[in-house]
Backbone:
């Protein structure tokens, strides 16, 4: 059973040369087709900010007692109520916090969603919505998260093309 309480406080927060380190995930899945089979149509999960209706991907502080992948997984559970496989890092970005006018380092990962929970720690302060990658890119408020989404889409599209080419090559043999 997963912990249903979000971590609070900054006592364990990681910093690198004065920059707070944050970690986020782009939760994704492939939409189910009408026949129940999984299609190749990508969907990503966006959440609202705690204080408004701005859309973003789950992210938060990376703490001293966890790996970067554990932090990414924890933030996805706390903020979006999803559990899955954290995949290879999409990149690292440096950006300025809107509220505190300080620089942050942000790491983003894909999270292939295996389970969506009905109850999660921040259910009462956030909404979550599955949408196409194109719509998520339009809706997302952070430029660096949009760049991470572009990298994820390119990675998944390239992998899918490679699989199709391999299947074609095998059928011609």
Residues:
């Amino acid at each position: 059973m997963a912990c249903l309480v979000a971590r609070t406080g900054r006592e364990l927060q990681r910093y690198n040369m004065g920059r707070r380190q944050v970690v986020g995930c782009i939760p994704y899945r492939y939409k189910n087709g009408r026949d129940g089979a999984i299609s190749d149509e990508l969907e990503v999960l966006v959440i609202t900010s705690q204080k408004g209706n701005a859309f973003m991907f789950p992210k938060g502080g990376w703490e001293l007692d966890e790996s970067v992948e554990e932090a990414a997984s924890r933030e996805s559970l706390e903020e979006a109520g999803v559990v899955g496989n954290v995949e290879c890092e999409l990149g690292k970005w440096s950006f300025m916090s809107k509220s505190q006018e300080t620089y942050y380092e942000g790491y983003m990962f894909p999270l292939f969603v295996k389970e969506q929970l009905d109850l999660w720690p921040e259910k009462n302060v956030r909404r979550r919505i599955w949408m196409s990658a194109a719509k998520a890119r339009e809706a997302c408020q952070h430029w660096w998260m949009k760049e991470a989404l572009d990298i994820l889409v390119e990675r998944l599209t390239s992998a899918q093309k490679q699989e199709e080419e391999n299947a074609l090559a095998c059928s011609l043999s």
